[in-house]
Amino acid sequence: MLTLYHAPISPNSRRVWITLLEKGLEFELVEIKLNGEQFKPDFLAINPFHHIPVLVDDGFNVVESLAILDYLEAKYPTPAMLPKDAKDLAIARMVQLVTVNELLPATTTFLPQILGFPGADPEKIEQAKQKISTVLKFFENLLDDRPYFGSQNLTLTEVVAGTVVPLMPMVGISLSEYPKLNAWRDRLIVRPSWQTTETTPEAMEAFNYYAVSPPLNLVLQISGGI
């Protein structure tokens, strides 16, 4: 049995959860509360870097979400979730890595604002908006007449980018200027896997509770689990 250690609020966790659902695999979900549970000895024995997600498969521990996705694709290749064509594969990988390295860090700049905390830095907010705009234009230009990035079928690219791009309205950025990307987002959010893994109000409330305490907020930042 596959076991996914995750936190519902985490896009990194969600991308693995969606992949497990899209591949129709049986798995167990174990929630790790980012209030210090990630530092307990039992979890550190699974991942010494105290991050989520972690996938455990018959005693084999896989850390880092992109590595987990590659593992699942290699071990469970049906349905295929990566393009075979060289150009399409490059598109898929570019979108994944730009999401992780550029879009998600820029989006987390808005986290205090989303949670209603004071002290947002206007200069950092403006820089983040510019970065996000650059990423969204890049994504818009990569989409062609196919419904997904480099593919007629859902891929791991959608799993990664599709757990971050739909957050843009929450940070005050409309996708209306990006019609292809907006239509792509609309196709994703109605899928059962996206609906099942959507963050609940209860999960958001729990996250707010942990985040308001300065020591716990520090734990969240160190954990890398957001």
Written account of the structure:
With 226 residues, the protein is an alpha+beta fold. It has 2 domains: 2-79 and 200-223, 3-Layer(aba) Sandwich (Glutaredoxin); 86-195, Glutathione S-transferase Yfyf (Class Pi), Chain A, domain 2 (Up-down Bundle). The protein is built from 11 helices and 4 strands; from the N terminus they run βαβαββααααααααα. It has a 4-stranded mixed beta sheet, with helices on one face. Helix 1 (11-22) links the parallel strand 1 and strand 2 (27-31). Helix 4 (86-108) runs antiparallel to helix 6. The longest helix is centred in the middle third of the chain and has 23 residues, at 86-108.
Summarize this structure briefly:
By secondary structure, the chain is of the alpha+beta class. It has eleven helices and four strands; from the N terminus they run E-H-E-H-E-E-H-H-H-H-H-H-H-H-H.
Secondary structure blueprint with pairings:
Blueprint: E1 2-6, H1 11-22, E2 27-31, H2 41-44, E3 54-57, E4 60-63, H3 65-75, H4 86-108, H5 111-115, H6 122-142, H7 156-161, H8 179-189, H9 192-197, H10 201-211, H11 214-223
Parallel strand pairs: 1-2
Antiparallel strand pairs: 1-3, 3-4
Keywords: Transferase
Organism: Nostoc edaphicum CCNP1411
InterPro entries: Glutathione-S-Trfase_C-like, Glutathione-S-Trfase_C_sf, Glutathione_S-Trfase, Glutathione_S-Trfase_N, GST_C, Thioredoxin-like_sf
